Amino acid sequence: MRMDWDKLRTFYSVVQAGSFTQAGENLSLSQSAVSRQILGLEESLNVSLFHRHQRGLVMTEQGEILYNAVKEIYAKLAMTESLIVENKDQPRGTLKITTTVAFGALWLVPHLDDFMALYPDIQVDLILDDRELDLTRREADVGIRIIPSRSPELIQRKIMSYGLHIYASQGYLKKRGAPKKLQDFKSHALISFSQGGEIHPVEDVNWILNLGLPRGHFHEPYLSINDIQGMMIAIQKGIGIGVLPEYLVSTLKNKAENSDEELIRLLPEITTPQVQAYYVYPEELRNSKRISVFRDFLISKISESNLMSISL
Questions:
Q1: Where are the domains of the chain?
Q2: Would the CATH topology of 5-75 be identical to that of 86-312?
């Protein structure tokens, strides 16, 4: 049995569009022509691909299996096209980057204009998502991750290491004073991470609540937040003391709206967790010029930020 590629292309378009009518407009076909293509595909496979409802189309189990296969084919074709088009002397084409919301919005975005100025023929498509997109299915070309990948189909390299340190605002310290030793944290307003939200790079994300206490005992948090940006704002506004990634504070340096919002690192002499960040991309893109120039750009900016750059 052979599946007709034109019918598969129509099927893929119907799923993407959600209706025969919209798919027909996208393909410059009539609704009846689209319907005939899908019916012909179903007859050749001897299965139903869609449940037809008045409110729209829902794929059957067999339809989902076929869609996943066709989607992967489209992803491979898109990758092949980008590699063919890419000029080895001057990188060009779309570079789809994914990373966490906090790192992407607060550190990466402020640097992207410099990258695009250096490489005007590269179109950046940035996807900020705390879940890990599937790079093997080309949901993105490259990822910057804080959790190492276990997929053998992906290449990953450490690009930086940053600390998770304890911070308070200048305004908070004026009101409450600064803890001088671990035992002092019991008399301070501590901000912790609540359940949910973004991926955490360390197992015990709320280690601040155990400072100065025996194992298994914890301070009661004054406020819990499930998002690092919310945590940052709360600390800046003097609500309490909390943990922030070093890259974030480095980015915010000298940008506080007033001196009371300036962030001060507390007890710098104590050991705090270190996080590794990884540059991850599919094996098929090993020789992509876009991948390599963006990697080199990142390492340069990481070094400028006084974070620990790891040579590739």
A1: 5-75, 86-312
A2: no
Is the pLDDT at 165 greater than 80? The verdict is yes
CA–CA gap between residue 306 and residue 247 (Å, rounded): 9
- φ, ψ of residue 268 in degrees (nearest 5): -65, -15
Structure-token match 């943990």, residue found: 243
Rg of the chain on CA atoms, in Å: 25
- Greatest pairwise CA separation for the chain in angstroms: 77
H/E run at residue 161: strand 154-169
Quick count: other Cβ atoms within 10 Å of Cβ 110? 11
b/e sequence 149-177, b meaning 16+ C-beta within 10 Å: beeeebbbeebbebbbbbbbbbbbbeeee
Question: Sign of the CA dihedral 225, 226, 230, 231?
Answer: positive
Q: Which of 139-143, 190-194, 255-259 has the lowest mean pLDDT?
A: 255-259
The reported pTM is 0.68
Contacts of 267 (CB under 8 A, 6+ apart): 166, 179, 181, 182
Nearest to 130 by CA among 229, 63, 10, 8: 229
Nearest-angstrom CA–CA distance, 22 and 42: 20
Report, at the CATH architecture level, how domain 5-75 is classified. Answer: Orthogonal Bundle (1.10)
- State the residue for tokens 């104590």: 270
- What is the dotted CATH code of the domain comprising 86-312? 3.40.190.290
User: To 5 degrees, how large is the angle CA 157–CA 161–CA 165?
Assistant: 155
